């Protein structure tokens, strides 16, 4: 498909969009909002979502209400809703990743478990063998974590939830900690393949004994309603 451009049109880079925008309008479903949140929202550009998807937890303006809603926003009649991101990094790796909903650490294969230890603020919590673990924000509590039986957490609650995925245990439940907590996940099996997923969009693969640190990011998302 070709893109017709007028003589005066210009394709802006991400940096140019961030520095020149007072508001970004995301048209689509929650997947579109998640992508825009990480790319633009994490850089202090407020987001307004127009829902063309099914659920619309983040983008709550219906297509039929676009004109009315935009006029109200332009006239200053809107509400702001702040959400925090999670940030993760692998020890001895300079690159870091952020997620608005959840970070999922798993084997990357069906019916294959990983072994890991969880530390909160350097205090040992438990050792687990499971398909993986979901670490989510309150925003993500109505996403993948919910399908795994995790608790629904109000967006204003300052908390992070850890939910084991199909644990090999007779008693295992989700763990809710303060959002200021430093979470450290240590993979204990050498040579085992593993994958980290960020909002089910960005993914990294690694192998062997690794240490992953997860905490609240300094970046914050501002949603406009």
TrEMBL record:
Pfam families: NAD_kinase, NAD_kinase_C
SUPFAM superfamilies membership: NAD kinase/diacylglycerol kinase-like
Keyword Hydrolase: no
Matching InterPro entries: ATP-NAD_kinase_N, ATP-NAD_kinase_PpnK-typ_C, NAD/diacylglycerol_kinase_sf, NADK
GO molecular function terms noted in the UniProt entry: NAD+ kinase activity
Coiled-coil annotated spans: none
GO biological process: NAD+ metabolic process; NADP+ biosynthetic process
Alphabetically ordered keywords of this record: Kinase, NAD, NADP, Transferase
PANTHER family xref list: NAD KINASE
Protein name: NAD kinase
């Amino acid at each position: 498909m070709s893109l017709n451009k007028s003589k005066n049109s210009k394709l802006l880079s991400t940096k140019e969009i961030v520095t020149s925008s007072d508001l970004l309008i995301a048209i689509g479903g929650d997947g579109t909002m998640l992508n825009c949140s990480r790319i633009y929202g994490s850089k202090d550009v407020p987001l307004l979502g127009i829902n063309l998807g099914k659920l619309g937890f983040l983008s709550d303006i219906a297509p039929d209400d676009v004109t009315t809603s935009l006029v109200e926003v332009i006239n200053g009649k809107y509400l702001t809703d702040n959400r925090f991101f999670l940030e993760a990094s692998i020890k001895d790796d300079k690159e870091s990743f952020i997620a608005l909903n959840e970070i999922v650490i798993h084997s990357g294969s069906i019916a294959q478990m990983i072994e890991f230890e969880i530390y909160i603020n350097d205090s040992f919590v438990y050792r687990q063998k499971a398909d993986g673990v979901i670490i989510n924000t309150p925003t993500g509590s109505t996403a993948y974590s919910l399908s795994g039986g995790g608790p629904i957490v109000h967006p204003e609650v300052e908390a992070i939830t850890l939910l084991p995925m199909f644990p090999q245990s007779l008693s295992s439940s989700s763990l809710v900690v303060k959002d200021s907590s430093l979470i450290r996940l240590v993979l204990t099996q050498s040579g085992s393949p593993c994958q980290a997923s960020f909002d089910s969009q960005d993914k990294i693969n690694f192998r062997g004994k690794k240490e992953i640190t997860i905490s609240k990011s300094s970046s914050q998302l501002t949603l406009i309603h």
